[in-house]
Specification:
- Chains A, B: Belongs to the NAPRTase family.
- 2 copies of one chain form a homodimer.
- Chain A is an alpha/beta fold.
- Chain A folds into 2 domains: 244 residues, Alpha-Beta Barrel (nicotinate phosphoribosyltransferase), CATH 3.20.140.10; 175 residues, TIM Barrel (Alpha-Beta Barrel).
- Helix content of chain A is 36%, strand content 17%.
- Chain A has 15 helices and 18 strands.
- The first copy, chain A, starts with 20 loop residues before the first helix and ends with a strand.
- Chains A and B meet through helix 1, helix 3, helix 6, helix 7 and helix 8 of A and helix 1, helix 3, helix 6, helix 7 and helix 8 of B.
Chain lengths: 442, 442
């Protein structure tokens, strides 16, 4: 086991405690009742997209694989569970040998999803599969929320680079996962060094207002920065007076100045003025980076402004109004006995309100029209129609406990762009609306 | 160093990479310019509370201390920074010896805060203090957002216990910090085993719908659970038909049944019916736990319902509409030279829009009326008026690099209750409004 595979920029011995207590008490009761070994199928899906969103983005699958691989009950963990009397001795013994030996299938990371899409399917005994519920949902609900916001921002930016700068606005390790999810969704770099260390995402950053304020004059600050970081650096020009700072920046760095950054004010207006001023000073190739409380709408509103890159923080890491997805992990089929050949029977909750689910182990495919554009998300538990066989979405991720679905973040980024491009044009609109594909159940 | 002090349920060698790249490039430029050793004061504050909120809750201070203590640049980290050319060799040498040797003061954890409250003050050389910006903000912005939601929910629950169940809706390590923050804000337990392991927060949990669906009948499932977990367990009664399930639950467990849990439907209506039914069956002491998409408003709406405990997930860990705070880390004073006796001079950004700040190293006090109720948050950088001397809010947390501000979570919980109780009555309202205290600058 390589602890670095955990997805953290840190050594972590196990993910087994990222678990709600009821998973262990259910295990204990099922072990005692003789039902723990019934073959079971759990599926991850959402009943709806966040209000107004046109599509979801699957992100975190790679981190799920890391978490599954490292899901072990170490002696210190078992001792904690014993002391706190979370479960009994037979259950502790069972946990000591735990490792997931079943199969996991799912939408590949970067794919889009819709209400009812079986995003992940975990197959094994009830005992081994039920334990993964919380950690699987934590990863997918968080990462997919950030990736969906990132994807919308990438659409709004229309090819201009997006820099992820949200670490300070979210938990320090959620920040690392957010950088990763933002990269999946189309961002090109991050300010977060831990994300660079762990995932190889390009890191960027030069200076804050504090650096200007540290020095006796803005001239001193710019000179110090250019002396040390070179003329290609990005100078922050809104500590005092923007026009004076831009003049000074070009005076100090020359027209080879890499970029200026604007972090406050009316960005549309200021960007136009700064571009004019830079051009007048001969700094035609000096870029303009803007970074103040941007979301996808603010980015879109700057489409006609002379902006070369956007830095995005708060709204990215908080999912632009939707900081989590509503993915659930539900038992959809299980055998009627622990015999290995006992057939799977579909099961589903049937009680009050909207919280019902569709039983059965499902396939999923994306139907396309003659023009190649997607027309429906098709989900079923019976035989897959022949014409959809080529359109299946679910791939193997873990086979008999072995991880088989690892891939590079570059491949995931490309998949997301391709998947989004296959959707109807209305997927590109930022405005609120219904999911761009209906989900059909066969 | 005890890695467990990091606040994670895992071994972590360092928090130094939870840092935005610009902190290191500023360091490099300041080292070269000879300004890195200027004595500096950074303050953490917010310019506003989340819209409609009456007060903020300081949470995460204990985790900040863990992060500061473990902020070291290990060889693997330095090698990463070298390979990626983030900073130059002199800077890497400087980082290899880094540890924070300055002072940190702040509002004690659990205290309430208002716009402009100097929640944390970091004093040291520019170099040593600038590096802590991102990790300090990550921790405080996240944890305080969750604690503020928790505090409102605790007010709404009016003494009934609140169970934190949000792990599946947020990043797996943000979940652990969320449990901690919820506990600070008034929750009494958590479903998250990692939070129990790391912080000693009481953990709870019994079963999910999957457990009922695993078994051939609800009767089998309830029997299995009671056999294993005892009659004091909580049976989930909304998988099929609630009335039938409640009847069955008491049949299987007897009137000693600990509790039933309802996770869907019209909770107000269902809770009343279930209470009636339990009473009719003689199960007068069987409690009712409700757990479906609750927020502070839903909790308040159940005040008159026969509910004994609330389980809260999504809305807690996402800060009930405000998943982050807007805390910033700003240089407010610095010396004009690196001489140790050079006097501090206040500094402040003065550019466009609302993003200005107030310079100077600040004290803070809460003014109270004759009835002991708070009337204003008073912040100043000059002499503190004598009548406010007893009302000061800021305490030492780190002195010359040594952590002096550690305390138990129990003490923090008690402080929060006391601090909230000292606010005007309107702080108890859930409705949107202005901060209950004005901030006065002296």
């Amino acid at each position: 086991m390589n602890p670095a595979d955990l997805g953290l920029p840190v050594d972590v011995p196990s993910t087994a405690l990222f678990t709600d207590q009821y998973e262990l008490t259910m295990l204990q009761a099922a072990l005692r009742a003789g039902t723990a070994d019934r073959r079971s199928v759990f599926e991850v899906f959402t009943r709806r997209l966040p209000e107004g969103r046109r599509f979801g983005v699957v992100a975190g699958t790679g981190r799920v694989l890391d978490a599954v691989e490292n899901f072990r009950f170490e002696p210190a963990v078992l001792e904690f569970l014993r002391e706190q009397r979370v479960v009994d001795e037979p259950t502790l013994e069972w946990l000591a040998d735990y490792r997931f030996r079943g199969n996991i299938f799912g939408y590949p990371e970067g794919e889009v999803y819709f209400p009812g899409s079986p995003i992940l399917r975990v197959e094994g005994t009830f005992a081994e599969a039920v334990l993964l519920e919380t950690v699987v949902l934590s990863v997918l609900n968080h990462d997919s929320a950030v990736a969906a916001a990132a994807s919308r921002m990438a659409l709004a930016a229309g090819g201009r680079p997006l820099i992820e700068m949200g670490a300070r606005r979210t938990h320090e390790l959620a920040a690392v996962a957010s950088s990763r999810a933002a990269y999946v969704g189309g961002f090109s770099s991050t300010s977060d060094l831990a994300a660079g260390f762990r995932y190889g995402i390009p890191t960027v950053g030069t200076s804050a207002h504090a650096f200007t304020l540290l020095h006796d004059t803005e001239h001193d600050a710019f000179t110090a920065q250019v002396d040390s970081l070179g003329r290609g650096t990005t100078l922050l020009v809104d500590t005092y007076d923007v026009t004076e700072a831009v003049r000074l920046a070009v005076e100090v760095a020359g027209p080879e100045l890499g970029a200026v950054r604007i972090d406050s004010g009316d960005l549309l207006l200021v960007a136009h003025r700064v571009r004019q001023q830079l051009d007048a000073l001969g700094a035609h190739r000096t870029r303009i980076v803007v970074t103040s409380d941007l979301d996808e709408y603010a980015i879109a509103s700057l489409a006609a402004a002379p902006v070369d890159a956007y830095g995005v923080g708060t709204q990215l890491v908080t999912g632009s109004g939707h900081p989590t997805c509503s993915m659930v992990y539900k038992l959809v089929a299980r055998a009627g006995s622990a015999a290995p050949d006992a057939p799977l029977e579909p099961v589903a909750k049937k009680s009050l309100g909207a919280k019902t689910s569709v039983g059965g182990r499902k396939w999923a495919a994306r139907r396309r029209g003659a023009d190649g554009v997607a027309t429906a998300e098709v989900v079923g538990s019976g035989e897959i129609p022949a014409e959809l066989g080529e359109r299946q979405l679910i791939v193997p991720l873990v086979t008999k406990g072995e991880i088989v679905g690892r891939e590079s973040l570059e491949a995931v980024r490309e998949r997301h762009v391709a998947a989004r491009a296959g959707l109807p044009m209305s997927a590109m609109q930022l405005s609120r609306g219904e999911p761009v594909l209906p989900t059909e159940y066969l």
